Amino acid sequence: MSDSGTSDSGSSSAGASGRDTSPFFEIYKPAQGYYTRMGSALGGGILVLGGGHFVWESLGVFDDPNVPWTMWLRMGVPAMLVVGMGLLLYWFVGKNRNTSEFLIATEGEMKKVSWSTRNELVGSTKVVIAATIFLGFMLFLVDFIFIQFFQAINVLRSGGS
């Protein structure tokens, strides 16, 4: 082992300073944590695109057909935002060692989970739906009783007058 915590066999791309010296588009441990990385990238990508669309809509106030540079402002700022945030997302999901290790470990733990069977899931869903309907009916009944009580003692008036 070297001082930087990596083996001397050259399997790590960290240099003498401990910094990652691999090319930017080389993914850290690409064969591990694929589904959690892709799920995180997909969710982050949706957020990045939504943010770009929000900025594009917000810059609509600058859309003046008489001024030629407003189109570049309205299109350029969201495009730079999407590209910049996309690269940051790629670094976060694919290059950052700490994040990658976390996502790899998360996928490993998800494989250990004892998932419910379809019958258990259907049974639990039926119980939740029945309990919700029962509680809704009970709340309706209590509310109806309170309405009748308050109308009887003339605290609550019904009708058009």
What is the structure about, briefly put?
The protein is mostly helical and 161 residues long.
Compute the separation of the termini in Å: 89 Å
Q: In percent, how helical is the residue content?
A: 55-70%
- Based on Cα principal axes, name the global outline: flat
Largest sheet: none
**Secondary-structure element order, N to C:** HHHH
Strand content: under 5%
Total beta-strand segments: 0
- Supply the number of helical segments: 4
**Contiguous runs where pLDDT drops below 50 for at least 5 residues:** 1-12
* Rounded mean pLDDT score: 82
- The helix/strand class is mainly alpha
Radius of gyration: 29 Å
How many structural units, i.e. domains? 2
Characterize the structure shown.
The longest helix has 35 residues, at 118-152. The N and C termini lie far apart (89 Å). The chain has two domains: 34-112; 116-161. With 161 residues, it is mostly helical. It contains four helices and no strands.
List keywords for this structure.
mainly alpha; 161 residues; 2 domains; disordered N terminus
Write the SSE topology.
Blueprint: H1 34-58, H2 69-95, H3 97-112, H4 118-152
Helix pairs in contact: 1-2, 1-3, 2-3
